[in-house]
Please model this.
Amino acid sequence: MMNPNIRPNPGHRKKLRFRQLFLLVGILSLIAIFLNQYDFNSRGKLVVDPALAPPATDGREVTISGNKGGFTIVIDAGHGGKDPGANGSSGAEEKEYTLSLAKKVYALLQQDPKFDPYMTRNDDTFLELDERSAYSNGLEADAFLSIHGNTYTDPSIKGTETYYDSLISIPLANAIHDKLIGATGFPDRGVKQEQWRVLVGSERPSVLLEVGFMTNPQEEAQMLDNAWQDRVAQAIVDGLNDYFEGKQE
Ligand SMILES: [Zn+2]
Model:
């Protein structure tokens, strides 16, 4: 015969179930809050909403993300922060022109459902070259574009150059360069192979765009012009469209 003293108290068990239910509701609420703050893009990669991300202390977390599906494009505005890049003939700094043009490319890609754009920097932040390529590698970018302005001691030198390092990047370089020379109106200096560090570190199809010479007064004036930048940004997007035509995500 069971000792009635050790028989479980039915009222106590009910209370336990109630507590378990309460705990379960609490856990589910936390999961709901978590899912609301984070988003998973089409490839299941967890992407922190930049508006909710903790403020960056050294700028390394500063990135903006489309997070909307499509080909992943990383746009790298050359230089930034303590590194101004080239000094134009008027004294303009390359880092400001690269950021302005990169933002225009980003905005156009953001409107296009085929593309999911990211920027290595979206303000005047210094980033190491290896951090830029590592960011693209980490995102498994379908294309990495590093935007620059050229410089030379002879101010008469001008024109548009597109660089690649790895052979896998040649079709991307050709597609963008073809559109770029039409939009810049600058002399065509060609598609060239060069071991720029930001390209060497990249495992993804990657190009470096030397869109024009900031040390040439005529080209610099155009490169700082808003309408010219709009045209060139559209040309870069047109080149990406050509490159990705027929490709599957
Ligand atoms: Zn540069």
User: Anything to note?
Assistant: The pocket of zinc ion is lined by residues 78-79, 85-86, 94, 148 (CB under 6 Å). The chain has two domains: 8-38, 62-244. The chain is about 40% helix and 20% strand. The two ends are 70 Å apart (CA to CA).
